[in-house]
């Protein structure tokens, strides 16, 4: 439990640090989200490199996605993705009903506007992980009510 | 292993981010080290709060220090402190012969000048943890050769 908390606390500190400086306009906020996403991307790449050292090759995109939903998500957040849907045309929707990095915020809609900064790093993690597995993608996230989170992954390859 | 790597990678990203901006003078570097230390302090406080919820009260300072060397260090770095010495007058020296956050750097003396930025957050972690246990302290670290690290903890209470 405590080492999971270590990541959560450090993640919060990083967000606070990035959001402390500079202006508060939409452009500024966009830049911050991009920074967090880029950091997540690099970390995701590094993690997948270590994590898949002993893993046999993946059969196809669906196989990769199952790995992300089960093994990768469990490694990151100690739980699997709760629901996975796809349109079989390269779009995948991963739903986590109790996303760990939102669990520090109050449940409900009160702090909904703060959600994007808590999601950006993880979007980057997924995009970086996928990139290292040879899948170029766009990863976005949405929250309708805390602490549930949907991650939309759109393949670009 | 992978969740430990998650913390290590995020820690590296944070350092890179903090060191990317601003000047390169000694004052600037000092400020950066302080920032990292302060972040570590807050994370250390949070961790100890969670970690000691179920722990019985500590008998004395030595008891606290044993907890830091064993349980806290293991939670952070998956290993115990290798050596602990004290002058019995409030100074404790904790030695880790293979400090995880230095293991990414090459062994030897080549990158010794970069060591302080990889130690500051952890000094803060220890100081924050101790502070939450009622011990005011000054925590410094020194490296004679990678990846060994000595943490000097001087009680101030």
From TrEMBL, chains A, B:
GO-annotated biological processes: endoplasmic reticulum to Golgi vesicle-mediated transport; nervous system development
Q: Which domain of life is it from?
A: Eukaryota
> Could you name the Gene Ontology cellular component terms for this entry?
cis-Golgi network; endoplasmic reticulum; trans-Golgi network; TRAPP complex
Q: Does the keyword Lyase apply?
A: no
InterPro entries linked to this entry: NO_sig/Golgi_transp_ligand-bd, TRAPP_component, TRAPPC6/Trs33
Subcellular location, record wording: Endoplasmic reticulum; Golgi apparatus, cis-Golgi network
Q: What are the protein's UniProt keywords?
A: Endoplasmic reticulum, Golgi apparatus, Neurogenesis
Q: Which Pfam families match?
A: TRAPP
Function, as annotated: Component of a transport protein particle (TRAPP) complex that may function in specific stages of inter-organelle traffic. Specifically involved in the early development of neural circuitry, likely by controlling the frequency and amplitude of intracellular calcium transients implicated in the regulation of neuron differentiation and survival.
Family to which this protein belongs: Belongs to the TRAPP small subunits family. BET3 subfamily.
Under which name does UniProt file this protein? Trafficking protein particle complex subunit 6B
Which species expresses this protein natively? Answer: Merluccius polli (Benguela hake)
């Amino acid at each position: 439990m405590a080492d999971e908390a270590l990541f959560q606390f450090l993640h919060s500190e990083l967000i606070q640090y990035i959001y402390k400086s500079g202006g508060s306009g939409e452009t500024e906020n966009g830049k911050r989200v991009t920074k967090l996403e880029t950091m997540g991307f690099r970390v995701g790449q590094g993690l997948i490199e270590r994590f898949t050292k002993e893993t046999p090759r993946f059969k196809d995109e669906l196989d990769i996605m199952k790995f992300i939903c089960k093994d990768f998500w469990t490694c990151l957040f100690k739980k699997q993705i709760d629901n996975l849907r796809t349109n079989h045309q390269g779009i995948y929707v991963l739903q986590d009903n109790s996303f760990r990095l939102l669990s520090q915020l109050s449940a409900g809609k009160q702090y909904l506007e703060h959600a994007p900064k808590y999601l950006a790093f993880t979007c980057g993690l997924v995009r970086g992980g996928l990139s290292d597995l040879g899948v170029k993608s766009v990863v976005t996230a949405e929250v309708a009510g805390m602490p549930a989170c949907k991650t939309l992954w759109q393949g670009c390859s």
